[in-house]
Amino acid sequence: MKIVKLAICLIILGIGGKLQAQDLLQRVPADAKVVMAINGKAFFKHVDVSEMNNLFKNFGFFKNVIGKKSKVTSENLEDFGIDIKSKAYVYMQLTDSVQYVGSLIPLSNPSQFEALIPDSKKIENVNGLKTIYNNNKTMRVSWDNQNLYILNGIAMDIHFSRKVNQDRYGLLEESTYDDVVATDDYSVVEAVPDTVVTEEWSETELEAMEEAAEAAEEAAEQAEEATEVVEGTNEENVVVPPPAAPPAVIVSPDDFDAVDSVLDREEYQDDYYLQYRKIQNHNDSIKNTLVAKWVNEHFTQLLSNQGNSYQSKTLQNLKDNELVRVEVKEINDFYKYYYPMDIMYSAFGTAFKFDTGIKSLASSIVVDGNTMKMVGDMEVDKDLTKYYKEIYKHKLNPKFYNFLDEKALGFASININSEAYIKHLPTLVKKYYGSMGDNKVAKGIELMSTIFDVALDEKALAKVMKGDHLLVFNGVTKTEVTYTDYEYDDDYNAKEVQRTKTENVPQFMWMFSSDDTRIYQQILNLAKSEGAGTDRDGIFELKFDKSTGIVPHILIDKGIVFISNDLEKLQAIKNNQFRGKGHSEFVNMAKKNNIAVVFNTKQVPVLIDELDLPVHRSMEETVNELSQYGNFYYLNGKMKGNHLPFELGLDFPKTKSNAVSFLIDALNKISLRLND
After folding, report:
1. CB 433 within 8 A of CB 616
2. pLDDT of 138 higher than 80
3. What does DSSP say about strands 533-536 and 539-542: parallel, antiparallel, or unpaired?
4. How much is the average pLDDT of 91-111?
């Protein structure tokens, strides 16, 4: 665990473009699924090292993390031997049996870095590199005079849970409670002794535990010696011999009455968990041995540049305002490695593709003045690009703009072409959820898609709901609501009583366009006849649980369906008296993007005050500063080629030179308040 914490610290420190950085990218495997570049040069262009030193000091990093077990007493990040103003890489590589997470970090002074390592951690020389391991050797940290290499291997549970692999590696199945009692396989669990269980383990039980642990270790060593890794995969060709059975205390049939007599005792559960832990320890020991071996082999490939290197011009040439960039390749492969394919086969006789049509994803955290944002795009499969372009080729109803008030707490808009969506939905369903093979499931999906295609009239449905939606939150209002409570007399007889309370209710307005509102009108007429609502002069009030304080109303007016709990605003709309004015920034976000979700951060202090929410004194200044913030937003833009862009950002106050400087300063203030 200590080396894991040290590795995390090193990755945090190793942020940062010199010639070394390009060389390190060449060491990233070509088949890495996720690669992240951390640009220290850009980061420390926007913030001074002294500010970071203060932040780390205030949060106890130097004292409680770095200095706790090492000889280093410095409180300067530049004294740790990590080239913090260069570029570091973190990558993830997947196979069917093991997941690798690697980090490549430039060093400025290897001796300073070595001083961080606790005396209790043994430094070995492995293949000419100074190296330390974690306890089970599934994580390796090695370094030379220029670079630091960290590699962690994680066993893939799906792989090791398959029966064929359990037999191959000599893994034991985890027993159920009944298995512990009824099993005749004494190589898995030992029989229950015919003595009464006490809270302390007997000498016989302790000896059995020790012998079981030794047997597990011996099995792990046998697995390591017998395992032969096929080049390019992590599959084994030989069966690992099963572990030797631990000594068992054999009971005669006459003794089972004695066993049954203690099954109901609470202490017997300890015996069950003991057996469970033995099996777990046995399996973990074998898996750790295998993973440790694979980590070392992978490390050799990494350092010798065997195979092709990961290629990315954007990672090699990060911009001065680009702090972090992440690239994710072959997204659909993640399903292959993570979702339980065996269960799919058992339940349906097939495994589904789950092909989202998204091939890859790339995003960067960038600084744009006082705005920090994540910008990126998703690469769409070329076979689906034309469908997505048609689906997202639509404009928001201009009548919606007036509802985007500057003081609104937030809004969400979505703008798709309903006709194109319904038209292409059968194709998308077959693409997304199609089966891997020609079987009854695949044929069933194809049949349902065909029925859907034939049965639905996309043009008619698109008139009912065109596809543009806007949901606006205008804050909260205090509403007095009535609810039913109960009073009890001396004989505990209940009597219903009506009480009132004040609730804080969100004020919302949802609207969407419709060229054919007949179906909505007929639904409202039916609801009225069934007593599910009331027509109040053209505005339909739904029957709702009034104890919540939310009373939704529906208005159909000039080709727009409005649903809101703000009756006064709906009445103003109906009577042509509504005089809203859209905030230009909000209007542009909703107008130019397929999806826009915006939270008006500056309204948070007002909202907290209206809700009478308690704020700790240490956070009062921070909460009040929120009135100086801009918007927190997510935008999904128009398609460009076969790429779908997105952006997530937050506008910080302009009290500092840039967003990074403000963020570090804000964190420093919070740390000081917490330490008071």
Report:
1. no
2. yes
3. antiparallel
4. 93
Assign 115 to helix, strand or coil. Answer: coil
Residue 13 and residue 82 in contact, taking contact as beta carbons nearer than 8 Å: yes
Reported for 611-614, long-range contacts at CB under 8 A and 24+ positions apart, including other chains, are 611/476, 611/504
∠ CA 416-515-528, nearest 5°, is 110
Contacts of 106 (CB under 8 A, 6+ apart): 14, 16, 18, 20, 21, 24, 82, 83, 86, 87, 88, 146, 147, 148
Torsions phi, psi for 120 (to 5 deg) = -75, -15
Minimal CA–CA distance to 245: which of 300, 172, 309?
Answer: 172
Encoding tokens for residue 301? 């490939």
| Ranges 44-53, 449-458, 489-498, most confident | 44-53
Quote the crossing angle between the two packed helices 382-391 and 418-433, to the nearest 10°: 150
| CB burial readout 41-52, b (16+ within 10 A) else e | bbbbebbeeebb
Question: Does residue 417 carry a pLDDT above 50?
Answer: yes
- Tell whether the model's pLDDT for residue 210 goes beyond 50: yes
Q: Is 488 exposed, middle or buried (0-12, 13-18, 19+ CB in 10 A)?
A: exposed
What proportions of the chain, in percent to the nearest 5, are helix, strand and coil? 40, 25, 35
pLDDT of residue 255: 47
> Would you state the pLDDT for residue 131?
94
State the pLDDT at residue 447. Answer: 64
Confidence of residue 488 (pLDDT cuts 50, 70, 90): confident
Average pLDDT, the chain: 79
- Retrieve residue 126's tokens: 């492995």
Please state, for a pLDDT cut of 90, what percent of the chain lies above it.
37
Angle between helices 617-625 and 659-675 (to 10 degrees): 160
Res. 477 pLDDT band, cuts 50 70 90: confident
SS3 210: helix
Token pair for residue 334? 């993640």
- Between CA 197 and CA 263 the distance in angstroms is 10
Find the angle CA(414)-CA(415)-CA(416) to the nearest 5 degrees: 120
DSSP annotation of 253 reads G
SS (H, E, C) 518-568: HHHHHHHHHHHHCCCEEEECCEEEECCCHHHCCCCEEEEECCEEEEECCHH
- Axis-axis angle for helices 440-455, 418-433 (nearest 10): 170
232: left (phi over 0), alpha (psi -120 to 50) or beta: left
Which band of pLDDT confidence, cut at 50, 70 and 90, is reported for residue 149? very high
- Asked if 417 contacts 394 with a C-beta cutoff of 8 angstroms, the reply is yes
Distance (Å, whole) CA 476 – CA 603:
11
